[in-house]
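Example record for the data management plan.
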Amino acid sequence: MIMEVVVMMMMLSAVLLGFLAGLFAFKVKSRWCPRCGEPTHAMPPVEGNR
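Corresponding structural encoding:
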């Protein structure tokens, strides 16, 4: 009984540690221009409708 609880706590700790590592490793690129505050675009908008 005690062994199952210990194994479950170890698994939960590993999952939490992996989640936090992924959270801190994630980097969001800047979406706004720091000078003017306008949104930035990775690609220019396409002219016309297709």
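Summary line stored alongside the record: The mean pLDDT is 82.
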